[in-house]
Fold this sequence. Notes:
2 copies of one chain form a homodimer.
Chain A: H1 8-38, H2 43-50, H3 54-66, E1 70-72, E2 78-80, H4 82-104, H5 109-119, H6 125-136
Antiparallel strand pairs in A: 1-2
The structure holds a DNA duplex.
Amino acid sequence: MTEMDGQVPERFARAREAQSVALLEDYVEMIGDLIAELGEARVADIAERMGVAQPTATKAISRLKREGLATARPYRGVFLTEEGADLADRVRARHRTVVELLVAVGVPEGVAELDAEGIEHHVSDETLAAFEGFLKSR
Amino acid sequence: MTEMDGQVPERFARAREAQSVALLEDYVEMIGDLIAELGEARVADIAERMGVAQPTATKAISRLKREGLATARPYRGVFLTEEGADLADRVRARHRTVVELLVAVGVPEGVAELDAEGIEHHVSDETLAAFEGFLKSR
DNA sequence: CAAGAAATATAGCAATGGCTATAAATCAAC
DNA sequence: GTTGATTTATAGCCATTGCTATATTTCTTG
């Protein structure tokens, strides 16, 4: 045990909070990718890439709209708000940094990609800055 | 984009799976800690340390019993099965390694503890091995 | 050992994130 | 421009993980 015992509940609360944001981040990044590649993000494409059924994607998109990250008209494509696009950029950059960090400490490329998907959502700004510093100073 | 585009849905599915196991791991580790410290794990203590209400802890313990990781009789303490104790040991070791790795690449101790709580559940055996190798070879 | 305090369990609610089945809207092609 | 195919939305289900309120059991103490 460490000297931080008193903060244990807060640690878990923080991890839970991060998890609740993770899905939003994944969807926003994916929508950003689709728009960049295809000019628009269709529900069917989003569902396929996320590996979920189409109604699941529709429901997630509703939440994105509620949170002000995306806009969509019924039976039309999905688009990101400025806030959503900013978030997508940050998520993408963080993902790259996490993969690079993992590779830098010896994790095989493919494994790094797989693990980064889960890890990235729990990397705070401070840790991300440390990762960048480490990568630069090698 | 990388050369792994075809596996994107599997990546997310894997991250989701890891998330569903994370809570079990946290509870098992915490119960192990409590037994080591106090000789037994009471529901009230588990709830307090996990930062959740007592019925939430009770419900989680039911799941642990269902999964064969813990045993408990009503109104009595909670104990780990052999499988649960093994899991607790592995989780604890992995947690330490993740914190050490983070510190090794420049993350401040306190931040490392916070972030590790979320990160550790997404660290595969292969990545963990790479972390250990990196730490040893410094 | 009886009563009150403390701990645990249960009931029931909400949000999230899955799913299938089906309805409704759009698109394509004749 | 209709019709059939495709796409999206909706309805309704399940499990999980939280919560509060309340019942029940155990513990403690006079």
